[in-house]
Specification:
Structural class: alpha/beta
Bound molecules: 3-acetylpyridine adenine dinucleotide
Distance between the termini: 29 Å
Number of helices: 16
Largest sheet: 8 strands, mixed
Radius of gyration: 23 Å
Shape: globular
Number of strands: 20
Oligomer: single chain
Length: 529
């Protein structure tokens, strides 16, 4: 492969793959570096039992190629990890992407040479590549968070993290298993692990809201219906706040203004339909605590009605704002705690004291197990970016983000010229259908570099004032909502020592419009040379 290209892309997940394709289509040369030995990003790594996407498969898929859309057959309402990985592999083959992807290669550092207007990218095997543009497609949830529990390395059994699961799978049959964490990864894996294990002990720091998936096979008729109207569906999704779910539109009235019986019927309807659209019942669910309480209380009642043991039900019942941590989508999560081989340990007041050679110690009590599953999430949105030692002419990424991430549009960072971040902090990314957000970013970056080429410009950098205003805007929007009220990974609160900043921007459709306007206004807020 040529070591000098127009663009180096870091990561071969859905963002990196489409970025490569989009640049190639415009006649640019590009090279992708990927740590894994295949494409897929998140869906390459997260192979834990029960892993599947909680955005419906007909929507969690690329829209850029109508042919791809028509030929790919999803089998279930929510696709499993293996099926999504097969889809990513199919895309790589179909668009002949692999010839420009260096697998098994980690980017260690990147240095911008202002005179030459190009980046030198150094990888872990010591080789270098040169590129005018550096495009970070590293994923928002790809740097695992493994808490530094005292004694963690002394455990003599097997340990796993849901985000780096063994490729051959794990058979828990007859084993005593600990799962630490109760976020989405745990909610999906716990019911399956519980069926295999001799005993499962779940260590919960914060109780979780989960709505039923009601997953099922897709019928030929519904596939045909969507495929006939795919363009309209994609366009309608891009007009939503989340980039998906237009088939189950968000209510435009406020929960506080609705009669209790009406609200109950609406929550029942959405609960029966299943999935994340539960939170779309009313316009103000994440704006008004009283409204949120009505939606939260409905779920709490479902938990109490499902879980037979009163004390366990109490422990499993969340008290925080529903949706301010990512809502989970489950298949039998709460009911799993009715099994005689499952116990729940509260670590909210007394944190995990120690991992011992034989298990987990909490409040002086030892829980001996054969395996520990860390379902403890990710250093989200910034973790993977900050692992790369990226140096602009005067400032490094680490310095620029010392007090938390700062970007312009979530796409660019002042001080790091000719570098773009796909679904970076300050853009809607993790609050949306990731593929919709990825496509929007890829297309914006593609159009931007095409415009630069047409105008004979080689250097682009976010202006400080535009970035400052953007950061203020992202914060202002977040502060209008209930999102900052709980310790979520959106705020970096799950990683000890991480600066507490609400990282994503709410609202896909208004954001896309802002990006369009910035471009139409001659890329307002960017300096060119
Ligand atoms: O991670 P999480 P995840 N001691 O951060 C607990 C996406 N995703 O991998 O809540 C004890 O949500 C932590 O406790 P607390 C989705 O966007 C999507 O499950 O911080 N416990 C929490 O319970 C999701 O939101 C899908 O108090 C500790 C858990 O570990 C995101 O990925 C599937 C602890 C971590 O939960 C991340 O989900 C899976 C400690 N020291 C994931 N540290 C679908 O599409 C952390 N915890 C369905």
């Amino acid at each position: 492969m040529n070591d000098s290209v127009d663009a180096v892309i870091v990561g071969a997940g859905f963002a990196g793959m489409y970025m490569l394709h989009a640049l190639r289509e415009q006649g640019f040369t590009a090279k992708v570096f990927e740590v894994a030995d295949d494409v897929g990003g998140t869906w390459y790594w997260n192979r834990y039992p029960g892993a599947r996407c909680d955005v419906e498969s007909l929507e969690y898929s690329y829209s850029f190629s109508p042919e791809l859309e028509q030929e790919w057959e999803w089998t279930e309402r929510y696709a499993t990890q293996p099926e999504i990985l097969r889809y990513a592999q199919h895309v790589a083959d179909r668009f002949d992407l692999r010839r420009d992807i260096c697998f098994n290669t980690r980017v260690k550092s990147a240095d911008f040479d202002d005179k030459a207007t190009r980046w030198t990218i150094t990888t872990d095997d010591g080789s270098t590549a040169h590129a005018q543009f550096l495009i970070m497609a590293v994923g928002c949830l790809s740097s695992t968070n493994l808490p530094d529990f005292p004694g963690r390395d002394t455990f003599t059994g097997d340990s796993y993290h849901t985000g780096t699961w063994p490729h051959d799978g794990v058979d828990f049959t007859g084993k005593r298993v600990a799962v630490i964490g109760t976020g989405s990864s745990a909610v999906q894996s716990i019911p399956i692990i519980a069926k295999q294990a001799a005993h499962l002990t779940v260590f919960q720091r914060t109780a979780t809201y989960a709505v039923p998936a009601h997953n099922r096979p897709l019928t030929a008729a519904e596939m045909a219906e969507v495929k006939t109207h795919y363009r309209e569906l994609r366009a309608a999704n891009r007009l939503t706040m989340t980039g998906y779910g237009s088939r189950s539109p968000r209510g435009d009235t406020n929960a506080v203004d609705s009669a209790p019986a009406e609200r109950e019927a609406e929550y029942e309807r959405r609960w029966a339909a299943g999935g994340l659209s539960y939170l779309g019942g009313y316009a103000d669910l994440l704006l008004n605590k009283d409204s949120n309480d009505t939606a939260a209380e409905f779920i709490r009642r479902q938990i109490r009605a499902t879980v037979k043991d009163h004390a366990t039900a109490q422990l499993l019942t969340p008290t925080n704002v529903v949706g301010c941590k990512r809502l989970c989508v489950d298949t039998g999560y709460y009911a799993t705690f009715n099994r005689p081989n499952v116990s729940l340990i509260d670590v909210s007041e007394q944190p995990i004291e120690q991992i011992t050679p034989t298990g987990v110690r909490v409040d002086g009590v030892d829980y001996d197990v054969d395996c520990i599953v860390y379902a403890t999430g990710f250093d989200a949105m910034t973790g993977s970016l900050l692992k790369i030692n990226a140096n602009g002419p005067e400032i490094s990424l680490q310095q620029a983000w010392e007090a938390g991430p700062r970007t312009y549009l979530g796409l660019a960072i002042q001080g790091l010229p000719n570098m773009f971040t796909i679904s970076g902090p300050g853009s809607p990314s993790v609050l949306t259908n990731m593929i919709t957000s990825i496509e929007q970013h890829v297309e914006w970056i593609r159009d931007c570099v095409v415009a630069m080429r047409e105008r004979g410009m080689r250097r682009i950098e976010a202006e400080e004032q535009a970035q400052d205003e953007w950061v203020d805007y992202v914060n202002m929007v977040a502060n209008m909502t209930l999102f900052p009220t709980c310790n979520s990974w959106y705020l970096g609160a799950n990683v000890p020592g991480k600066t507490r900043v609400f990282m994503p921007l709410l609202g896909f459709a208004p954001y896309e419009q802002q990006c369009i306007e910035v471009a139409a206004d001659g890329y307002r807020g960017f300096a060119f040379a």
